[in-house]
């Protein structure tokens, strides 16, 4: 479903991503790990066609980000960390509906979808309030709904639980499990190892732009002879991924 094939990205003399390859199967929840600056977000931005690979290619459902970027965009939902980019003068409902319109959803279908997402993300109390006064967690929920409004097959989530309290983060994990049951393919990055362990069977670890590991969590434990995922991650990073 997602094939990353020997992808590199250079900015002048800086190599942000260096010859990275991994794949994500249909219906899989796949974790992308790495410290800040490891190349995770750059890799996900190339998947989303925001950045163009310097070399290599990425295919989403068989479509190339290089030669078929429009087809890729039709099939993905994207949420990047940091500023979630909502329109502060619009309500939560209007923000979600606006992005649904951009994807060409018909009015009746869009209205039903917005209501469905509001219920799924427990947003009913603030759906018709302007986003400008929202907390970080409330804004993040709206951003997640915006990501899912067109019912994409492939979902890219970069630090999706940033700003969410414990209850909301638990709700997010239940939502991911529900989306997986629907056959969605999800790739997400997180610094929360407990979250990764609960949601993912397979992971990729990046360090200084290169791939340190790609495979199952169980196989990684066997490889490094450690059990705690936090300790494993620190060992991989401090040891340069060896």
From TrEMBL:
Similarity remark = Belongs to the ABC transporter superfamily.
Question: Which Gene3D superfamilies did the record assign?
Answer: P-loop containing nucleotide triphosphate hydrolases (3.40.50.300)
Q: Does the keyword Mitochondrion apply?
A: no
Q: Does the keyword section mention Transport? A: yes
Designated name of the protein: Na(+) extrusion ABC transporter ATP-binding protein
Any one Gene Ontology MF annotation carried by this entry is: ATP hydrolysis activity
Ranges where the ABC transporter domain occurs: 2-233
- State the UniProt keywords alphabetically: ATP-binding, Nucleotide-binding, Transport
Q: Which PROSITE patterns match?
A: ABC_TRANSPORTER_2
What the entry lists under SMART domains is as follows:
AAA (SM00382)
């Amino acid at each position: 479903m997602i094939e990353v094939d020997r992808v590199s990205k250079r900015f002048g003399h800086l190599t942000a991503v260096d010859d990275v390859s991994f794949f994500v199967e249909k219906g899989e929840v796949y974790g992308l790990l790495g410290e800040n600056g490891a190349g995770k977000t750059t890799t996900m931005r190339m998947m989303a066609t925001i950045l163009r690979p310097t070399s290599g290619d990425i295919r989403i459902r068989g479509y190339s980000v290089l030669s078929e970027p429009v087809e890729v965009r039709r099939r993905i939902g994207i949420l990047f960390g940091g500023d979630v980019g909502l329109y502060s003068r619009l309500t939560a409902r209007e923000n979600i509906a606006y992005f649904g319109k951009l994807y060409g959803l018909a009015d009746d279908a869009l209205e039903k979808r917005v209501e469905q997402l509001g219920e799924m993300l427990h947003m009913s109390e603030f759906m018709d309030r302007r986003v400008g006064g929202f907390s970080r967690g409330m804004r993040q929920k709206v951003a997640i709904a915006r990501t899912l409004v067109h019912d994409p097959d492939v979902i890219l989530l970069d630090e999706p639980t940033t700003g969410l309290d414990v209850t909301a983060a638990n709700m997010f994990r239940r939502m991911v499990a529900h989306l997986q049951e629907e056959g969605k393919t999800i790739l997400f990055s997180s610094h929360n190892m407990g979250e990764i362990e609960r949601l993912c069977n397979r992971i990729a670890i990046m360090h200084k732009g290169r791939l340190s590991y790609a495979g199952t969590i169980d196989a990684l434990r066997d490889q490094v002879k450690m059990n705690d995922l936090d300790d494993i991650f620190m060992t991989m990073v401090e040891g340069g991924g060896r």
